[in-house]
Amino acid sequence: MNRxxxxxxxxxxxxxxxxxxxxxxxxxxxxEARHRDVPVLLSVxxxxxxxxxxxxxxxFEDEATAEFxxxxxxxxxVDREERPDVDGIYMTATQLMTGQGGWPMTVFLTPNGxxxxxxxxxxxxxxxxxxxxxxxLASVAHAWREDRDKLAGxxxxxxxxxREASRPRAAVGDLxxxxxxxxxxxxxxxxxxxxxxxxxxxxxxxxxxxDFLLTRPEGRDMALHTLRRMGRGGIYDQLGGGFHRYSVxxxxxxxxxxxxxxxxxxxxxxxxxxxxxxxxxxFARLARETLTYLEREMLSQTGGFYSAQDADTQGVEGLTFxxxxxxxxxxxxxxxDSDLVxxxxxxxxxxxxxxxxxxxxxxxxxxxxxxPVADLARDLGESVEALTARLDAARARLLAVREQxxxxxxxxxxxxxWNGLALEAFADAGRVLGETHFLEIARRNADFVRNHLxxxxxxxxxxFKNGEARVEGLLEDHALYGLGLxxxxxxxxxxxxxxxxxxxxxxxxxxxxxxxxxxxRSTGGRAETLLTRQAQGFDSAILSDxxxxxxxxxxxxxxxxxxxxxxxxxATVRTYxxxxxxxxxxxxxxxxAAAFLESPHVxxxxxxxxxxxxxxxxxxxxxxxxxxxxxxxxxxxxxPVLEGRPGGGTAYVCVGHACDLPTRDPEVLAGQLGRL
Length: 676
Hints:
25 helices; four-stranded mixed beta sheet
């Protein structure tokens, strides 16, 4: 056992039995490197990363490789999900050096933490056009002994480039009047009008971009078509619900099979918005099934959501999720049920998937829906309802058998930021679908975070595992959890949740705002000193922390009349506006903030006891109002929009501080909302 045995991160614990003498990130490791006068080998990954597992098996479990690493380096292992601040800095260095990034990430550092060589996955021997890891280790060790000055110069230069990358360009002025339209036009240029999505393979879900497009009538078609194609593809788990990480092809057919909390939480919210805009029950079904998956497999008994599930089962990618025709017939028997499933899900003897690393498992099938169920029902002369009922019964039988197979591993650490995304999804589902069960899960999550991850000074910790909260909270934790609390207030009407969101905004403003740069820093001023304090505007797999902070500031501004909060949000969008136009697909979160800034000031207050509000809330749930300050309350107090207004089940719809007549009639309310 090495030093990682004392950690709580599942990823670090996966490496606790390696012969490599791993250190966790910390000053002690760098002090050891200075003492021994050797470079640091930094390896960054996460527990559900397929190629991280491959490199671990090929290199970190190899005795000879480990012996060389231990002799010539201090070796540090980092979980990118536990330390996104560390990962972000050295990923920037890797991208600057190689033009690309990814995990596992391998970076060689001086004992002062300055990077001088970087890459991602390295095979043990030369192949794939990459140097072998063993040869690379020997080359770096030799250069450290024989050409130290050159390496030090490279490290200083690269470190300065990393620092420069964290200094965004100054704002160029107010947003132009056609700013939002230009964003939509730029996205349409890379849109796949046939298959949905943006760009070529691999295709990622891009929920933040889809959320922005749903708010724009001229771009909504792109979002809706993409969601429909994804919902029919193999990227969606057709039996168990939930979305896999991304599609390796353009057709959304063959996924990379890991499932992440953040993808499923964000896509649920996107699907709920699509359902509101269209009334298409297919979107509601996908959202409901995705949340059911999260509840079944990713929700802890204490109310926190786990982070991710692995792509591999027993070293074989997708083994749990893929099928052969024979396996389906074994479950459903020979006859019409099997024939129906094979046809609907495109299952053939030839298959559509083969794990290239484990070809002995043969070709298998990723379930997908090549023909819409409505079209197939017409071809078969059945009603859609009857065909769907037959299919649902068969799916339940197949899922029950699948659950008896070996299952992929689950990373059971709880991340505050990603739980904020899940909180928002479950709260929105409780409100939009009218299902109180989802709302109760959201409330339990808020109680969990308050009790286990909130410190007495109001700040949050980043991660929770084995009863221990660790790592000082980042901007993403405070901003994303604050957004989740806004959604929970809108769904449940407990003003304490909105007040907590306002408290988190106070932390965001105090600890992360950089007035000179006109943006938010990813780490607080009290955080560990790294090469630089980064600022993130580009969405990675989740809403960027600057976008989340801007959106939270806008909600605080709308609910509490906080003009300073809105000023900071506007300044952030102005700072990034050139980048947003240059790469529209990477800034969906900030495009949402820009759309929020340009939206009318809409407030909808529903005042009365829950049973009195219920008929009005059912009407309100039908309308997509992404930037409206929804204010359910028992009494007319606590917020400017509520003050002094009678209750008893009364709705108040206001635009720009001019209000329609109050009403208790759901049909009248529907008419008022329809004019917004």
